[in-house]
Amino acid sequence: MTALQSPRLEPQVEASPHSRLWERVKRVVASNPSVLPTAAAIVIFIGMVIYGEVAYGRIVQYNTLSNLLINNAHLIILAVAMTFVILTGGIDLSVGSVIALSSVAGVMLSNAGWNPWVVIVLMILIGTAFGLASGILIQYFNVQPFIATLAMMFLGRGLASLLSTRPERLADDSPILWLGEQLKVIDGEKVNDVVITPGVIIAVLVVIVAFFVLHRTRTGRTVYAIGGSESSSSLMGLAVPRTKVLVYVISGTLAGVSAVVYTSRLGIAQNITGIGWELDAIAATVIGGTLLTGGYGYVLGSVVGALVLGLMNVLITRDGGIPPEMTTIITGGILLVFVLLQRLVLMRRRT
Amino acid sequence: MTEALPIVEMRDISIEFPGVKALDGVDFRLFQGEVHALMGENGAGKSTLIKALTGVYRIDGGSIVVAGQERQFNGTADAQHAGISTVYQEVNLVTNLTIGENVMLGHEVRGTFGVNWKATHAAATEALARLGLGHLDTHKPLSTLSIAMQQLVAISRAMAIKAKVLILDEPTSSLDAAEVEGLFRVMRTLRDEGVAILFVSHFLDQVYAISDRITILRNGRYEGEYLARELDRHALISTMIGKDLNVLSSLGGNRRVEERDYAAEEPLLAAKGIGRRGSIEPTDLDIHPGEVVGFAGLLGSGRTELARLLYGADRLDEGSITLRGEHVDIKNPGDGLGRRIAFSTENRRDEGIIGDLTIRENMILAVQAERGWARPMSRKEQDEIVDRYVSALNVRPADPNRLIKNLSGGNQQKVLLGRWLATKPDLLILDEPTRGIDVGAKAEIQEAVARLAEDGVSVVFISSELEEVVRLSERIVVLKDHQKIGEIVNGPDVTAQQVVDVIAAHGVDAAARSGIIDAEDDAHPTASTDDGQLPELTEEHS
Amino acid sequence: MSTAARSTWLHDLVRKPFFWGVVAIIALLLLNVMKDPTYLAISVNPDNGNLVGNLVDILRASAPILMIAVGMSLVIATGGIDLSVGSVMAVSGAVAMVFMKDAGQSGSLGVALGAIGLALAVSAVLGVVNGVLVAYIGLQPFISTLIMMLAGRGIAKVITEGQNTSATNDPFRWLANGFVVGLPVVFLLALAIVGLVGLVVRRSALGLMIEAIGINPKASRMAGIRPSGLLLTVYVLSAVLAGIAGIMSVGTVMTVDVSRTGYQMELDAILAVVIGGTSLSGGKFSIGGAVVGALLIATLDKTVVFLGVSSSATPAFKAIVIVVLCLLQSDRVRGWFVQRRKPPKERPVPNAVAAREEVSA
Predict the structure, then answer these.
(1) B48: left (phi > 0), else alpha (psi -120 to 50), else beta?
(2) pLDDT in tens, C249-275
(3) Residue of B74, B94, B107, B121 best to disrupt the A interface, most CBs of A under 10 A
(4) Which chains sit next to A, with 3 or more Cβ pairs under 8 A?
(5) ipTM above 0.85, yes or no
């Protein structure tokens, strides 16, 4: 039941403060304070939407919000993946370069005439292989997670560069592009339509499955338990080694899925694709309320975190006054602030 | 008691670690429906034996038979499968999840749509209710519970997964008297339901209050199995501590018995009501210049915790320390060192030696740390220190460029002693400096302590070997259950036996007061102390 | 007698952690010689008396790697990591280039010194941020420096307004391209700085304390070491050295490419440290080893170009080498090599508490 608390929180902001719903929410938060950061992320997101609407206009409308989802579907998937890893207290720095390798390889194979479905499966499996390698290094050879995944990060980037250093363009008639095709759901006036892509659907499915796994399976609960205390989990007889490898496999696999979604939207892949995306994914996860040291967090929070970052990009573009180079600095700054807040809360809790 | 087959039978168990024989041919058996205490001082092999039984360690020799079947455990999960569950001192649950989940983790009730939380929490509530904890809200985070309650939740977990053997490894060390009583009530209930309980505790009165049978280990060896009601406290303590100290009795001359006017002399260090939550109750303590103060008490009595406060290894929650007449705030070991206090830890491997550094580097480290990195010691200064203490303490091998991790325990200890002596402390705290080292090295360290006191250094000497404490100390501070229970000014007629008496008797008093030994509640005839012993002990005490 | 003496000498050499690094350098050079027997030839340029040759090029290229490798080895020795060195290089290069571009005066030594001073000051500030986050706030080193790694590149872009920026300044250029007594200035400079750092670290007690913290932080604290100041020093030093590396690397072409300068240099730094025999889990470090590691990487880079292998393959290859060296450092693999002994009794996932308690037993 606790697992379901974070979605239940969403109405908090819209509900009138005196409603009964509000009372219920207050009780839920009081009994489980770990949902607070996730709630804060939702508040931040809505605050940003309101600010954007007031300051720049044309935010709260079908096409802007649809595009927010479409343009960030890959990031949502990455954030979900990172949530698994960070929940165990680990980290995966390799996701960005796995995407580079997977998409460059995918586009090249596709252009070489391979069956698109085989290509898509291979793209995902490349991610799986990287995740498996990281997981084995970490679990069975006691390499620190950031070192193991850092090595994988360099390896992925290196292999991608080995394949090609130029932008590889997917043939215009490639069926992979269909995954990025925009499908009109509601035909609004002019261009103000509700639009989704199969990529968005994939992202939503990933979120649903991840939610199910984390909250409704023993494996998912083991993920949380490991983040709480790995040695306790071990002594409780939980399948710690298997689960630890599994989270990196999940992370790698989802990086592969993310590569498919991203490539299908852009139609182009390059060896420098995805530089810094590990930071975005970590930031999305942390903003969404997942504790960097593991044990606490919600996958839906990470989705909100990803949307916060996406919306931030939209606002920066709309503003026009902020140079786009600032984006990584701002992302880094936000991540830093959230990590410091977490640190503060932890220190408070200890005393 | 029962003539039935034991549910657990460990025969001739041996476990070896590099350089140490942790267990040497140990036998142990456990019957259904009994509480069996495993006793022994630190290093006796209790936790090793438990870890062998729970599959954390693999055994090198011997056999483990559980419910008539010989078993080779390959991990905790294996042992749990065989019905053996363990609750450790530092509660091995995960505080980030709910109470209910902690009870059911890995055994959640599953339905069509994954885990059925409703049924899972219901099952958790049921398991908790068996221990009288049915009122707990299983949806609350475990972190909202006290350690004592978490302990009980851990036991509920063991019951929920249908454990036949329950191992409680020092479950009471952070519980207060009422909480201990609650735990014991649960233990009795489970025992009467036929669960076999293996109980480890350093609190003698608790052991007597709850146990039916006692097995004693010492130095990795089996010393014997006794019925609790037939083993008196003195016999228990002396079997645990052992008598191999006779070898050292020739050193009896080390004891300095000085006529000191404690009231007139200004103490070097005066502590007023210093304490730290969960580790030591507020304590007053004076240490005079050139005095050897022994801290006597069993493991877990608070002897180490008190010493750590003096050095700044832990921060004190309350009370104040006056050093040389000046109020001081010792925030960290660096501060302690800067005020000429030195502390040699009992945990040599984790808090003492820096394994990959040489003897020389380990020895000069504290002096260098006090100076700061910008003022390095010249080679000559280093050599002076190293030469002096390597020869004075007879460190072997005498090659200062050896890595300390390759030395024997005794020689590592001497290097560490050299490290602290080199800082020229006014107060030197030695926590178990002689544990796990050979007799020769022991004698050398004891001699060094005696010489230091003659030179005017105050020494706090902590050891589980009471004879040693009595032999060296001018004054003995007796600790028990995280508090100071008395002080004995040493004299020619003071013996280790008297200290044992104080510890044993105090326990009975305190236990009786706090109601741990509760005759009415005592459903099981063998569970409590033999009443006949009580008056005798109190008499000796007074 | 003499054979016995020689064999122990050889034995000691083989046991040096960077022995295999030296072997690898020699092997790579031999490979090059096989392709072109004149590879090792060094000639004297008759016009100015400078030495010319592949070896000289390798030395020149090794200079920035030396800088960051030395800084990284100290950081890793404390049990931390500095992922931001490459980005700090870019920031430092950007600061220097923008400063000189704005100042003009292509011949002015003062401008060059101003550029260097400012670049190093900015680098030091970034190092202070890293150090404070790690030492005083207690953040994990990789996350603090990861943020700096990605934000740092953003800062470099902001400084240059996203443009690759060029400048002309002869003294600055000389630093990277000039020669003194026939050898490249930049290499001599790097060597001098490494020597200085080595001297400071080994002659003061800094090295000892860094190692103590890296090997056993708890015991170091109990021995009275206060780690915060040390950690801060080390992260600042690493950033300043990275700043110097940035100056060296932009000085060669007198252009800062904000997305390429220092790109993936943290890979080179980590690799150099690992090759030098420093364990990634901290503890004993070897500056000499880091030097060998840096030279090996420079040799490798040049060899790849020389042999005509696509240079884009090198990062992947380096990553694989890191993975292999990590594996070699792990207890499990070491266990395989000492298989004659009994297999380890403790489980691969040791419960820290259990392990601690046991040795006292």
Answers:
(1) alpha
(2) 999 999 999 888 988 899 899 999 988
(3) B94
(4) B, C
(5) no
